[in-house]
Amino acid sequence: MATISDPADGEFGVALAQAVRETHADDARSAFGAPADAAIAASAAVAEAARVLDAEMTWLADLIDASLRLYFGQPCDVADVTAIAAPSLDASSTYYAQIVRAHAGAFDERVTLALALAPHIRPQVLDPFFARNPNFERAFSEFGGAPRSAHTGFWPTLETAAFVVGGARILERRLHLTRLADPRHALRAARVLHLDVAEHAHNSAAAPLLIDALTLSRIVRGVESGPEYGSAFPARLLTTPLDWSDLVLQPAVRAEVDELRAWIEHRSTLLDTWQLSRHIKRGYRSLFYGPPGTGKTLTATLLGKSTGLDVYRIDLSLVVSKYIGETEKNLAHVFDEGERRDWILFFDEADALFGKRTATTSANDRYANQEVAYLLQRVEDFPGIVILASNLKGNIDEAFARRFQSMIYFPAPGPAERAALWRNAFERGPRLAADVDFERIAAEYEVTGGAITNVLRHAALATARRGDDAIRQADIVEGVRREFRKDGKTP
């Protein structure tokens, strides 16, 4: 395995590029016997990102050195740090270059962005700010900086940016930099740059500079990784290898789904080109209801797959908290990222969160109802697509149900739909024995698509255990009977 040289030696970009090329080539050879095209393309993208970021960090190091020399009256090659030219990004297609061109064209904006990246890319660039003021035996206040848990290096703030770009006009430029504290600033509105203002509400200049985690991933790796699933982000990306041809719905249901799909594909035309946003909200809320296993989740996933939108399924077991205020907090991150990245948010078994509110017999009941009301409002204000799935329409709070743009009922499949589901499920894999009759099975057993998938697993496993290469009718029937017994029914 290749190693990366010490980035302090000034050859960070070359070393990282070489390491990435060798690593990707090794991985590709081990998997396929020869370098794969995708691995080669990925290594080239990361190598270019490394080259750009190496040049940016070198530029930042020069700026910091010059700003310190000028501040302390030491010899310096420039009279003002603005004379130190930034690396050209005009010909670069990297994500970092795109961000700079779109949102950080001004000198101080680019310096601030580079400072925010430094703790993740080359933290030692910031070490000079650890110098102590000999007059007071403490750090220089004008350098800024803020402590961060589990980070031993210097973490820059807006105060740090003001010092680097300030020179002889530090106060003027410090005041100018305060515009970055405005959430409407391009770097903030695009959610590239954050200020951790939780403990610095009255002094934004002391707030740590933070890079959005997903943006950072795309900057350094060339791809945007999804958020890490957990209590802080209770949602998972839904994917499927299936396509619309694998989804069997009654014609009336399919027509309603097609209307939702059309909204996703043409909403920009309606709202922006035709300027209907004056009358129509950008958000769209749909309720999918019906028995389990009837295609609600698959439909939501296919809507995203066919329109190029990610679909995130919210895990309500992590969202609903017994602690006051935690439910809103757990969902806030999902809504924020969903709005920014135009995700489809899918709430499965939504009754747990959006069900009928309880009678207010205690203070906890009153707060719980207020919490649900807040969440309903957040869903209603979401400018993207929200899909709620429930087994029963009547379980959803009526006040919220009136705000759905569509309510689509997914009934249990009839004999014709069941036959199509059986054929779709068994079209690949082991061959079918001559006695397999899907028309007969569909007519005799009322099962859903989800149950048919379970039957497929059982029948294929039974065939493999038998050492056979053909699924028999008896394998399928036994699988159906197992499904009935699971539900406490008699086949």
TrEMBL record:
InterPro entries to which the protein is assigned, alphabetical: 26S_Proteasome_ATPase, AAA+_ATPase, ATPase_AAA_core, P-loop_NTPase
MF terms (GO), sorted A to Z: ATP binding; ATP hydrolysis activity
Positions of transmembrane segments: none
The keyword Transmembrane helix is annotated on this UniProt entry: no
Organism annotation: Trinickia soli
UniProt cross-references to Pfam families, sorted A to Z: AAA (PF00004)
Domain AAA+ ATPase residues, every copy: 282-414
Protein name stated in the entry: AAA family ATPase
Secretion signal, residue range per the UniProt entry: none
Keyword ATP-binding found: yes
Family under the similarity heading: Belongs to the AAA ATPase family.
